[in-house]
Amino acid sequence: QVQLVESGGGLVQAGGSLRLSCAASGRAFSSYSMGWFRQAPGKEREFVAAISWGGGHRDYDVSVKGRFTCSRDNAKNTVYLQMNSLKPEETAVYYCAATRGLPTASEGAYDYWGQGTQVTVSS
Where are the alpha helices (DSSP H) in 12-110? Predict the structure, then answer.
């Protein structure tokens, strides 16, 4: 069992930056690949980024590649999402998720989810 708690969301102007954190409790965090997803109002949840258990492999949605960076610190049981050059259309609730499988953009592969943190980007 893994419990995930996101933090770091808030209000930022367009072009600004935020760093989200996802703290995990439970056993064997380092054996899980982690993903970040987001859900904007009235839209389906979508993939943002994923990172392998050791951090050596990372995937990004094309819309965030070059602006967002996913990293993890297994000693702190925490995964991060550094978001730069934010756009108003990226206003959403951001979720982290954990899977024992390979990092993937597929929601169904993730076993555990956090409650989400709100990110609002003003124009």
Answer: none
**Three-class DSSP category at 63:** coil
pLDDT, tens only, 47-106: 999 999 999 999 999 999 999 999 999 999 999 999 999 999 999 999 999 999 999 999
Whole-angstrom distance, CA of residue 35 vs CA of residue 4:
11
| Tokens (6 digits) for 96 | 């982290």
Q: Name residues whose C-beta falls within 8 Å of residue 39's C-beta, 6 or more positions apart in sequence.
A: 45, 46, 92, 93, 95, 116
- CA–CA dist 7, 95 (Å, integer): 10
